[in-house]
Amino acid sequence: MSINKQTSIKHQTLFLFALAGLLLFAVSAALAGEQDFTLHNKTGVEIHKLHISPHSADEWGEDVLGQDTLANGESVDIKFHRTEKAAHWDLRVEDSEGHSIEWENLNLLEISEVTLYYKNGKAWAEVK
Question: Is residue 28 scored above 60 in pLDDT?
Answer without folding.
Answer: no
